[in-house]
Design a protein that fits this description.
Elements (H helix, E strand, L loop, with lengths): L6 E2 L4 E3 L4 E3 L7 E3 L14 E5 L3 H8 L4 E4 L4 E4 L2 E7 L7 E7 L2 E5 L21 E6 L11 H18 L2 E5 L5 H6 L9 E3 L1 H12 L8 E2 L6 H6 L1 E4 L7 H4 L4 E6 L8 H4 L4 E3 L7 H11 L3 E7 L1 H10 L3 E4 L14 H10 L5 H7 L4
Parallel strand pairs: 3-4, 4-5, 5-6, 10-11, 11-18, 12-15, 12-16, 13-14, 13-15, 16-17, 18-19
Antiparallel strand pairs: 1-2, 2-3, 7-8, 8-9, 9-10
The protein binds zinc ion (ZN) (2 copies).
């Protein structure tokens, strides 16, 4: 039997033949990055390769890195090993990485969802022998309703808040969820205001050519009465901070797959929990894995023990592997935001200082 093309090391997923890593968490020379979330795109590698639409967000988050970007379907060869990216449907710029050499094909999916959200390129199943998958929501209780239905509820809640004269704060992480919410808000109700962390990400995406609905960054000069008529898009790290308290009275809604769990909304002190996830639900995971036609599945993060057992029972050859990929939807985990926020605190212009201040 041929040596496995990819292996799991304490630095990340490694291709010895190609001499590159995929989403490594320790500094290495050659990194292929599935997407720009902090647990996949670490700082400190010599060279980065990612999808074209991850470019500006990666530069914003990681600073001056040596980055090559390619399109979906484009092939790069490293030491004879072919690397090709396919849409993962997780967030804008997210990619599955197909690695092939002498007829052996592996796919590293990173994070993915199977529902087409209309904002990022939809997930595409890729045939392979070995499939490396997440299983953040790998339990049968996780079954998402169509996004249209969830965002219909968001818009109704917003309209109702405006009627009641209370501000509306909607929380979702800054890369992915924020844009998905933004593109589905009913702008007939009012304007969309943004926290600096989200606006910086929006600006990076716009620099990358992504067309997003109009937003207005909240600064100390933004009139509070105007904000109350609109909706405030805020990141998880802003929950419970003086920045958010300034908008009182407000109703606060949280968008996460975890909102499907009883108690999650209460733990986060949210008034409304919207079950909106950028990860595949149970059926999505099973159908995505099935569609690859793979012989072996490797589960990196999520309900790995449970999901692995299930896959083995239904005839897959599945096993758990150890990685440092985290849970970007956990309402108590704001790591992804903290990294961007600490960068925001390095003022590069007057704007940056202002947005840390409180609104009047
Ligand atoms: Zn992610
Ligand atoms: Zn992740």
């Amino acid at each position: 039997m041929a040596k496995p093309l990819l292996e799991f090391t304490d630095r990340g997923i490694y291709c010895e033949t190609g001499k590159f890593y995929i989403d490594p968490w320790k500094p290495i020379d050659d990194a292929v990055i599935t997407h720009a979330h902090a647990d996949h795109a670490y700082w400190g590698h010599k060279r980065y390769l990612a999808h074209h639409l991850s470019k500006e967000v990666l530069l914003y988050r990681l600073g001056d890195i040596q980055l090559e970007t390619i399109e979906y379907g484009e092939t790069v060869v490293k030491n004879g090993v072919e690397i090709c990216l396919f849409p993962a449907g997780h967030v804008i710029g997210s990619a599955q990485v197909r690695v092939s050499y002498k007829g052996q094909v592996w796919v590293v999916s990173g994070d993915y969802k199977t529902e087409d959200d209309g904002v990022c390129a939809p997930f595409e199943p890729v045939k392979c022998h070995h499939f490396i998958s997440e299983c953040t929501f790998g339990m049968p209780v996780y079954s998402w309703k169509p996004q249209q239905q969830i965002l219909f509820d968001v818009n109704n809640w917003w309209a109702n808040n405006v009627e009641q004269g209370v501000a509306t704060v909607i929380v979702g992480y800054s890369l992915g969820k924020a844009q998905r919410i933004l593109q589905n808000l009913d702008l007939g109700i009012g304007k969309v205001y943004t926290h600096g962390v989200i606006e910086n990400t929006n600006e990076a995406l716009r620099r990358n050519g992504v067309l997003l609905n109009a937003t207005e960054r909240i600064t100390i000069d933004t009139p509070k009465d105007e904000v109350r008529k609109g909706i405030i898009l805020a990141p998880p790290s802003s929950v419970g901070t003086p920045w958010m308290r300034k908008f009182q009275p407000y109703s606060f809604g949280y968008c996460s797959g975890w909102m499907a769990l009883r108690g999650a909304k209460r733990r986060r002190a949210a008034d409304r929990g919207f079950v909106l996830s950028d990860h595949a639900d149970w059926d999505g995971l099973v159908s995505a894995i099935d569609a690859t036609g793979c012989e072996c599945v490797y589960l990196t993060h999520g309900y790995t023990a449970f999901f692995t057992r299930y896959l083995n029972e239904i005839g897959f050859n599945a096993r758990e592997v150890h990685t440092l990929y985290g849970d970007d939807e956990d309402p108590t985990n704001v790591i992804d935001e903290e990294i961007t926020e600490s960068r925001d605190k390095v003022p590069s212009s007057g704007e940056d200082i202002k947005e840390i201040g409180e609104i009047s």
